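RECORD TYPE: protein structure
NAME: SpoIIAA-like protein
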Amino acid sequence: MLAKALQCATAHQLTAWLCDTRQLYYIDIADLNWMLQNLFPYFDMQKQHRVALLVNKSNFDLVANVPSENENAFNSGFGSFIDMIYFLDKDAAAQWLLV
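PREDICTED:
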């Protein structure tokens, strides 16, 4: 599903993503690693992208404690062209994407 979304986004040169993960019980570290290895490398490095991850409260609390190596890997590999922020509120996420 994400591969199809990525294909559509790149075909239309989209740079804003709203990912609603509130139905997930938890965000696994393996999911974050998958994004680092299989999703973000395909973003166009010549453009500035925004990724708003909409999460539930328990996932938000877990993300705050993600090991720093994932954050460091994201920042060193993709931080120059992808801004990614976690949100609890869909309207706040959408507003941030449109700024």
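COMMENT: The chain has a mean pLDDT of 84.
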